[in-house]
Amino acid sequence: MPKKLKIKLRDKLEYKYFYEAYLRAKKHKKVKRELLIFDVDLETNLYTLIEKIKNKTYHLGTYRKFIIYEPKRREILSLPFDDRIVHQWYIGEFIKPYIMKRFIKDSYACLEGRGMHLASLNIQKYMRKMKREYGKYYVIKCDIRKYFYSIDLDILFGLMKKFIVDSELLEFTRKMIYENATSKVGIPIGNYTSQFFANIYLNELDWYIKRDLHIKYYVRYMDDFVLLVENKEKAKEIFEKIGIFLNDKLKLTLNPKSRYFPNSMGIDFCGYRVFETHRLIRKRSVKKIKRRIINWNNECHLANFDAHAVLLSWNSFLNHSSHASCYTLQNKLFNSMHFVLEHPEEKFRPYLEKK
Q: Is the entire prediction scored with pTM above 0.90?
């Protein structure tokens, strides 16, 4: 049983906390009409949110729906700006400082100072240790089938009750989980709260794998996770136990792509193909940047060619690929561009002009 949160909802119903949440919600967002309207009378709007929560009259707004197709088709739900402030406040004041720090050290999603790059780096470190200890070993690579759409709300709320003492905070948590839900299964992709609830949900799996199965080398990034074991027989046994636990305790099923295999095949994890000696970026990522370069080459002569946006996209790819062994690939892609992308002191950064 985890330690209970002693913090109370009313301890954080102060203007300064909501103003900080407002700044976080506003950060990196395009200037839109609803944001401008909210800013016109910012102080009054924030105090209104505080009073609504204090008086238990706050309700979530109506979702806006849109579809994305990268890396696959997903329906994204977006709440009005004032609700996003409330989500930032709830996560920033209660979830991050009190619940997330109770996670195992090898859970990497939604945790400051961790992330995808560190997850791939540490699984490689564990692979090297297994290689030195056993020579040949087995990898169990899993993810959850339709994870966000499969989370059981009653189970999720039961997990949150393990942490929360204050009745008002617990009731507000119930609102965050259940309000606007169309069924008792599934949380909306796009909500700021969803990624944290999803992480808390699989924290149960983390502790099962570490405490009950005694797996030393295990890494999870949201619903993708990897275990390293000594041999095929143990891999088969652990794989079956994980499937049973997920089904019985969390009402989840493994993606059919989940499997176990020898270490010589490497591991496709967190954007990289990881081997003991090196890392490569996924073929999918290479195809994606190649398509972008083709589009840039076709558009670079146009008057509305957005050179700054191209530079940001290219530097994003460089940042990701710099964690892998692909210097030759970087140069090849760079040389395929029909426009200049260079800097007098540092190649690939950060000045762009058309030829």
A: no
- Which residues of 302-349 form beta strands (DSSP E)? 340-342
Return the DSSP state at 167.
Answer: H
What three-state secondary structure class fits 6?
A: coil
Amino acid letter for position 90: Y
Between the two ends of the chain, the Cα-to-Cα distance in Å is 64
CA-CA distance, 63 to 79, in Å (whole number)?
A: 5
Among 37, 89, 27, smallest CA distance to 58 is for: 89
Can you tell me the distance from the alpha carbon of 162 to that of 164, in angstroms, rounded to the nearest whole number? 6
Task: Summarize pLDDT for 58-114 with one digit per residue, the tens.
Answer: 998 888 887 776 666 777 778 888 999 999 999 999 999 888 888 999 999 888 888
Contact 190, 77 (CB under 8 A): yes
Give dist(CA 116, CA 35) in Å, integer.
31
Q: What is the residue type of 164?
A: I
